[in-house]
Design a protein that fits this description.
The structure is a homodimer of 326-residue chains. Chain A is α/β, with parallel strands linked by helices. Helices cover 43% and strands 15% of the residues of chain A. Among the domains of chain A are: 44 residues, 434 Repressor (Amino-terminal Domain); 122 residues, Response regulator (Rossmann fold, 3-Layer(aba) Sandwich). In chain A, the strands form two sheets. In chain A, strands 2-1-3-4-5-10 form a six-stranded parallel sheet, with helices on both faces. In chain A, helix 1 packs across helix 3, helix 2 packs across helix 3 and helix 10 crosses helix 11. The model of chain A has no long low-confidence stretch (mean pLDDT 92). Chain A binds a DNA duplex (30 and 30 nucleotides) through helix 2 and helix 4.
DNA sequence: TTGTTTGACTAATGCGCTTTAGTTTCTCTA
DNA sequence: TAGAGAAACTAAAGCGCATTAGTCAAACAA
């Protein structure tokens, strides 16, 4: 199935076919229709390699997740994000190259490889970090990129982000409006920028310090136990992901504390997990699918130069369920 | 960074460079080393499009997940599998094209597209079904494929599979050895082949019928409630995934039934979820990472013709925890 | 009528690589 | 020492497409 066969069948030159298929001037309306019809009949599809070779476009974007193997894949976040990304990509029939690696170093290596092999036209970068080597590298390589999850502290890459600080403020406000004044925050990985934002916003709103963790259920359990057995235990706890919140609800039960009577719990990020507990977990809901979709759209715009700078996504909203009260 | 520049720098022809870089005969050892050194210095990487265009190999394999948007991504299965696949692929520097779609029809469309655009050299197919349109299509297209999760009922595609029937038997044996004789099985989607295998094995071992569901927490809760409030409630329940088992443990608690004193529960597939409950869930553990790895290796072998037919993976093993007893 | 412009189309080139067909040099054998 | 054969290397073609530079005829202006 090549362009040449179409040309033969239609009795025109290869160039005419190329013009017709790409909606370029140079063929009459009649010939264009004829060619399109023949191509349709033959179920022709452009060979992506040939296209990429000539036009210098790969027709694909890349996404890398850097996670240690053991923390892989508890969160529904990924699939939703990927799924949203693809919903935007399918319009421009762009493919997604996806890779899971152990750490950020491996991630940068993938970027180098993809770009030098011209496998992708751009990449989506997730989980911005403090002292992140990726923006610098990507700028140096000239590989178009969009940072998902926060304005680039170095100001190098364009980004799309949700306002974690305001979201944290809204959680704290919800809790204080319920009468809580001793609130704790079980944060995630300290090296992530959005963790910093949450911690700072939490500090501004409550004056209290957060505890950082590795997002694991184990950490959620341990920190909850420590908090609840302290001299002045908090009356409300905010967890940076759903896994820790679920672990926390278990730890509270094991200590004989009633949720929400003795302590209220809030999970950052909703998932079916939050509805599996008793009581169900109050959660901060984000539309990750839509987020991924918008991110991909924005990357496409960045790639063809029609957009630069940062784009703020909609604010996550709190969905109160049984785990908060008082 | 093209092969031509390397040729110029090294003072040889482009062909010589190509021979050297691909370890083909036709250049002396001395020249080969020289060329490799120059390539190394210039940090050259082959342009994947050019390579694909000439050699008709895309250097990538494909993986499609067909899931309705709302059931996306609670399971850790996916990232683990992908991660394992990539660990095998990185050796041959093959890329992974990944796509999430709504249903099997969309999945077949992706296969058509990928193959006609020559974006992939082969695909991994997951979740074999009864009346599955995919093996037929893939055979017709001539797109190399490996079925993950069960021998192809039509005998068309080579596959890699774990023995679900024997695994089910081992679970039932474990439960009967604990003294249980009224066992129920909350199965997953009835159209999946492995569900059928489990149901049949369960029937052979116990004489009882299974209940099929959509894997959701909601279904797990509902079925558990129905089972436990029946005239002769089971003393043990086997769930086809972890989500339903967790929902089940909640439903049992809501009905005032103690686990494992009143009813024992077993989850098919382990995950951190199973350790979040009280008591922790006895689970059937599979090494999904290794499974993915082996699957990718096998697909590579299938693609270059060194392997055909089915490959049985290791048997999942039961890890008893607090939820089974008596 | 002649020259110019425009539209429709074709020929030819190149993208970066692999591969086949040649060419040259060197080594071995009789 | 001539001839054959192998080894090392080069030249050239081709993969499928996009793109640029032509070609040719019809339509237009002077």
């Amino acid at each position: 199935m090549t362009i040449r066969e179409i040309a033969q069948r239609a009795g025109v030159s290869e160039s005419a076919v190329s013009f017709a298929l790409n909606n370029r001037p140079g063929v009459s309306e009649y010939t264009r229709r004829l060619i399109l019809q023949v191509a349709e009949e033959m179920k022709w599809r452009p060979n992506s390699a040939a296209k990429a070779l000539g036009g210098a476009k790969a027709g694909a974007i890349g996404l890398v997740f850097a996670r240690p193997a053991e923390t892989l894949g508890v969160e529904p976040f990924f699939l939703r994000l990927v799924s949203g990304i693809q919903s935007a990509l399918s319009a421009s029939s762009t493919a997604l190259m996806f890779q899971v690696v152990e750490n950020v170093e491996a991630e940068t290596e993938i970027y180098r490889r993809w770009w030098s092999e011209r496998r992708v036209d751009g990449v989506l970068v997730v989980d911005p970090r403090t002292d992140d080597p990726r923006p610098g590298l990507l700028a140096e390589l000239g590989l178009p990129a969009l940072l998902i999850g926060g304005p680039d502290p170095t100001g190098t890459l364009p980004s799309i982000w949700a306002d974690d600080a305001r979201a944290m403020t809204s959680i704290v406000e919800h809790l204080t409006s319920l009468g809580h004044n001793r609130i704790a925050h079980v944060a995630g990985l300290p090296e992530l920028v959005h963790t910093q934002h949450r911690i700072e916003a939490f500090h501004r709103a409550t004056g209290a310090q957060s505890v950082t963790t590795d997002y694991s259920d184990e950490a959620g359990r341990r920190v909850t136990r420590e908090l609840l057995t302290a001299a002045e235990p908090p009356t409300a706890i905010v967890y940076d992901n759903d896994i820790m919140a679920v672990a926390g609800i278990g730890a509270a039960a094991a200590l004989g504390r009633a949720v929400p009577a003795d302590v209220s719990l809030v999970a950052w990020d909703d998932s079916p997990l939050c509805r599996l507990t008793h009581p169900m977990l109050t959660a901060l809901v984000r539309d990750t699918y839509a987020f991924g979709r918008r991110a991909a759209q924005r990357l496409v715009e960045v790639m063809d130069g029609t957009a630069t700078g940062d784009l703020e996504d909609e604010l996550p909203r709190l969905t109160p369920r049984g785990s908060t009260q008082e």
